[in-house]
Write a structure and sequence with these properties.
Elements lengths: L5 E4 L1 E2 L1 H25 L4 H19 L2 E5 L2 E4 L8 E4 L3 E7 L2 E6 L2 E6 L2 H12 L3
Antiparallel strand pairs: 1-3, 2-8, 3-4, 4-5, 6-7, 7-8
Helix pairs in contact: 1-2
């Protein structure tokens, strides 16, 4: 494998994504309900909108998987103990509907990815294996 670093965006498995994005949308709903209750412009409503946009940007941009030399690194938003998988411990990486499934030490992890990213990740992870 070349020494270049490849990075792809992902979302956690479907159930985890539903929970996290539901909490994010809850911030938006609180802002909308508050705005409909008072029907006038208030600065706290702008702060809620900025908070919602920031949460969305953070959740989209900080979840990524990187292939760096012989490591697969799955970064997360809040948990700094990222999932780091040496390629020699990778039992399998397979395409599933809407994402990839990674098998390591009898643990199976599922991640949602775009089709193009999924194919590139599988090809790079299995290269020279």
């Amino acid at each position: 494998m070349s020494n270049s670093k490849h990075t792809f965006k992902y979302q956690p498995n479907l159930l985890s994504s539903l929970i996290v994005w539901s909490w994010t949308l809850l911030v938006l709903m609180v802002g909308i309900i508050w705005w409909l209750e008072i029907l006038t412009f208030k600065w706290p409503l702008v702060l809620i909108a900025v908070l919602f946009i920031a949460l969305v940007a953070i959740q989209i941009s900080l979840r990524r998987v990187s292939i760096d030399r012989n490591l697969l690194i799955f970064s997360t938003v809040f948990n700094r103990s990222w999932l780091v998988i040496p390629r020699d411990q990778l039992e399998s990486i397979t395409a599933i509907r809407g994402g990839v499934a990674v098998q390591v030490d009898r643990n199976r992890y599922q991640f949602l990815m775009t089709k193009k990213s999924r194919q590139a990740l599988i090809e790079l992870a299995q290269l020279d294996k």
